[in-house]
Amino acid sequence: MAKRLSIFVWVLALALLVSLAPSAARAQNQGVTGFGFKIYRVDSSLYPFTQVYFRTFDQNMDPLINLTELNFGLMVAGRSYDPLKLQYTIQTLQNRQEAFRSVLVIDCSKTMEGEPFGYALRAAARYVDSKRPQDEVAILAIKDTATGWEVVSEFEKDGGALARRIADMRPDGLSTRLYDSVAAAIAMCGTSSQGGATSLHANLIVSNSIVVISDGFDEGSALSREELNNRITNLAIPIPIYSFGYTQINPSHLVNLESLSKNSLGRYYDVRTDGTALQRKVEDIQRNILQGDYVITFRAYIPVDGAKHDFMVGVEYPRGSGKITYQSAQFSAIQPPPLPPIRDAMVKLNGKLKPIPDGNPYLDSGDLEQFMPKAGGGKASSSSTDEFMPKAPAPAAPQ
Asked: pTM to 2 decimals?
């Protein structure tokens, strides 16, 4: 029990330090841990149950593996939840019902003609084949049109229909408006219907992403790379771009794809002329990244007031290392509408996260004190949390 609680005491202590010296703490955290995570959705539609969706990544932008409840800490309004009170659960999204949406952007210019385009189409077909039944894929071709792109398929669940549309694509474009096409894919993600009544519904879209297969060359786009990157940076909800740089002509343009991927918290794959690697890597996106997201479901004990309330999630990786990163977000204490799907979902969650009679999901003060330094060899001092606080500089000696 002490080992389990120590993880969350570290998270709490780090949060206290950050509140007083955020710049120094963040810099130290980033330099030590080598990993991060991003909360991209908070769903309060089943309140008092809140569901928090997030993506983890290491220094290579691969998802963190083998994470359990022992790697996570949860705080609400500055107070740490006690994991032994069983008021929150952590799951990967791979085996849940929520759906992902992605847009395949395929370069159909003549610079991709021949073997490169053949590999690109086979990689796109393999990506579709590896998706889950509820996930949706749209296809956008970089073509010689008034806009510079053409929608080959709107968002579609039917893998067979998607495969037929991919097979009909041809590399007949004379120009490559890469940046305008990626911007169009971002717009498709942002305006698509989310569907579903609750977070447990198969039609609810919780995440969007973009997969680009191109040689990286841009010609004639209305947007510059810098303007597109600024647009990506300002997105309220991140849309990661996974790009595959594949060319047999001029590899200098691949840096364009790398820039877009890094700026969007996606990943760039430099497969150059290796078409076999292109097919393998595109499948990794589905299986290892898009389905490697997590959701924390917790029961809140703040009365319904219609207001937003702060919470914080902390991740320690590897477990027991003391290397922690964290992120803050807010949930809304709202009364759910009396819809049958919402009522049924709440009944299920109530069976998993049973209410605590005293309404206290937090760590008790005694649990915290056992980790605090002792004062004079006796009991823990009531001010022992000062040990975790930044020390004020010593006064200068008189001149």
From this structure: 0.76
